[in-house]
Design a protein that fits this description.
single chain; mainly alpha; Glycolipid transfer protein, GLTP; Glycolipid_transfer_prot_dom; ceramide 1-phosphate binding; ceramide 1-phosphate transfer activity; GLTP_sf
C-alpha cells in the first residue's frame, strides 16, 4: 500500500506573512490571504494528530467552503466586507439551503481565538512544561462556549495526552523549532490585529449571532 505525501512542517513565519498581507488599508481583510494563513494553521492541527481531531476536520471543511466561494465569485468574495455585503444584499444570510460565507468565516474566527490563545500560552511555558493545561484553558475560554457538552468533554480528555512544549514544537516544526519560537511574538501580534479587525467587522454588521 503506497503511503500518502509526507506532511510538511508548520511554519509560523508563513502564518505571519499571510495575515500581514490580509490587513488592508481600508480596515478590511483580504479573504485569500486570510485563508492562506489559516491553511498553515490547519497544518499545525494535522501534525498534532488525533488530539485535535475535534476541531481540525471542521476547520478544513470551513476553509474549503470559502475557497470554493472565492473560486466561483472572486469579485464578491475578495474581502470580508464585500462578502458580507454581497450576501446581505442578496438575502443569502437567511437562505436555508445556501452555505453562506459570513457564517462559515464566523466559525473560523472563533477557531482563531482558540489558536492564538493557545500559542500565546505556549510562548510562556518552559520546554519541560506540559502543554495540556494551557490548551484546556485556551479551549475553555474560546471554542468550548460554542461546542455541545459531548464535544467539550471529549476534547478536554484528549488534551490530557498532550506532550511537553519541547516535544510539541519538535513534532510540528521539525528542525525549525527555534525559528518558530523567535517569530511567535510577531505572529501573535499580527494575528491579534486580524482577529480584532474581523471581530469589529462582524460587530458593525451585527452578525456575531449568525446561527
Amino acid at each position: 500500500m503506497a503511503e500518502g505525501p509526507e506532511l510538511s512542517f508548520f511554519d509560523l513565519r508563513t502564518v505571519h506573512d499571510h495575515f500581514d498581507q490580509a490587513l488592508l488599508e481600508n480596515d478590511d481583510i483580504d479573504l485569500k490571504a486570510y485563508l492562506d494563513a489559516y491553511n498553515e494553521l490547519y497544518k499545525f492541527f494535522q501534525l498534532m494528530g488525533s488530539v485535535f481531531s475535534f476541531v481540525s476536520s471542521d476547520l478544513k471543511q470551513k476553509i474549503d467552503v470559502l475557497i470554493e466561494l472565492r473560486n466561483r465569485d472572486n469579485q464578491n468574495y475578495t474581502t470580508i466586507k464585500t462578502m458580507i455585503e454581497y450576501e446581505r444584499d442578496n438575502k443569502l444570510l437567511e437562505k436555508a439551503d445556501f452555505v453562506n460565507g459570513a457564517r462559515t468565516l464566523l466559525r473560523l474566527h472563533r477557531g482563531l481565538d482558540f489558536i492564538r490563545q493557545f500559542l500565546r500560552q505556549l510562548g510562556d511555558l518552559t520546554d519541560i512544561d506540559k502543554t495540556s493545561g494551557c490548551c484546556q484553558d485556551a479551549y475553555n475560554k474560546t471554542l468550548a462556549k460554542h461546542h455541545p457538552w459531548m464535544i467539550r468533554k471529549a476534547a478536554i480528555v484528549a488534551m490530557y495526552t498532550m506532550p511537553t512544549r519541547e516535544m510539541l514544537f519538535k513534532k510540528v516544526c521539525g528542525e525549525n523549532v527555534q525559528r518558530n519560537i523567535d517569530v511567535l511574538p510577531k505572529m501573535l501580534e499580527v494575528t491579534a490585529d486580524v482577529f480584532d479587525r474581523t471581530h469589529t467587522i462582524y460587530d458593525i454588521y451585527k452578525l456575531h449571532t449568525l446561527p
